[in-house]
Every structure is written in structure tokens, then in C-alpha cells.
Specification:
- By secondary structure, the protein is of the alpha/beta class.
- Helix content is 54%, strand content 15%.
- It has 9 helices and 9 strands.
- It has a 5-stranded parallel β-sheet with strand order 2-5-1-6-9, with helices on both faces. A two-stranded antiparallel ribbon has the order 3-4.
- The two termini are 17 Å apart.
């Protein structure tokens, strides 16, 4: 079945996958093609100084978003995932080979460190942060098995939204191309 048919006209879409897979990039592109607002969950989850948002605040913001009729979330942290899945019409899971997502994450991290690009409320990734105990690169390696297990669980669940699993970036490109034409 063509990937666009698997979206089935969905207006509430959750992207799922490991850090660096390209969820935010795909969410933004889907939002543009489908005329839906998309939310950068990292922006909701991180405050200035890389301080995590209080759980209650994150939960309230996610509840407000998913109550809407049309939205795209670029991820759903495990603490709010049940709220999102209860309203999502489809999950688009980016389940790429580890070297693909890790390579993307490494390039993004190097670019952000070098350019001092501001993200999430003005936070800046530094070399110390990239290589230290809170390293996003280490996070990727630790999180990959959990993300894959969560993808399998969503696919096997008797209830919940259908899951469109994309195994290669070319599949995401085909999805976007089919929406454009």
C-alpha cells in the first residue's frame, strides 16, 4: 500500500523514533504539506539552561495540544505518550538503521556546537555537553533499544492508532513526494 494511503487522511499524527532520526524535520515537512501545526516537544520539555520543564507543566501543554482537531507531534516522551496515543490517528515511526540516525545526530551535534545554534529556549549545545555524562550521542545509543521495543509494542497493540513504520529515509522522502504531487 502506498505510504500516503497509510496516513489515511489523519489529522493527528505522532512521530516516533530515536534521537537524530529526523522526526522534527519530517514533522515540519508533514505540517507544511498537510496544513497542520507541528510541535517541537524538546521546546516544551526544556527550559533555559537545559532545565527540564516540570512534569505537570509538560503534561498540561501536551493535553492542550492533543485536545485539538489537528496536530503533529515530533515525539512523545514516555511520561505523556499514553495521552498522545489516546488521541493520535496514526503514528509514523522512523525505525532507521542505527548508523543512519547516529550519523545524522553526530552531524547535527557538530554543526550546533560549531555554530552555537540556539535551540529550545536559547540553549546551546557545547562540546562538553556533547561528550559528557549527559551526551545526546550516548543517549542515542542507550535509547535505541527502548525506542525499537516501543515501536514493536505499538505495532502489536490490539488498541491504538495504526503505525506506519519507515525503515529508510527514502521512505520518508517518498511519503513527502506523494503528498506534494
Amino acid at each position: 500500500m502506498p505510504v500516503t494511503q497509510q496516513l489515511g487522511g489523519a489529522r493527528r499524527i505522532l512521530l516516533h523514533g530515536v534521537t537524530g532520526a529526523g522526526k522534527s524535520t519530517l514533522a515540519a515537512a508533514l505540517g507544511e504539506h498537510l496544513d497542520l501545526p507541528w510541535t517541537d516537544m524538546d521546546h516544551l520539555a526544556w527550559r533555559p539552561g537545559w532545565v527540564e520543564s516540570p512534569h505537570e507543566r509538560l503534561r498540561a501543554e501536551v493535553e492542550r495540544i492533543v485536545a485539538g482537531e489537528g496536530w503533529i507531534l515530533d515525539t512523545a516522551y514516555s511520561s505523556v505518550r499514553p495521552l498522545v496515543l489516546a488521541r493520535a490517528e496514526v503514528v509514523v515511526a522512523l525505525d532507521y538503521a542505527a548508523h543512519v540516525s547516529l550519523g545524522r545526530l553526530l552531524r547535527r551535534t557538530v554543526r550546533r556546537v560549531v555554530t552555537r545554534e540556539r535551540v529550545c529556549h536559547g540553549n546551546v549545545e557545547t562540546l562538553r555537553r556533547a561528550l559528557g555524562p549527559e551526551s545526546i550521542l550516548r543517549w542515542h545509543v542507550r535509547a535505541l533499544p527502548r525506542k525499537r521495543a516501543a515501536t514493536r509494542a505499538m505495532c502489536e497493540a490490539a488498541e491504538g492508532p495504526p503505525v506506519l513504520v519507515l525503515r529508510h529515509p527514502r521512505e520518508a522522502e517518498r511519503l513527502l513526494a506523494s503528498l506534494a504531487g
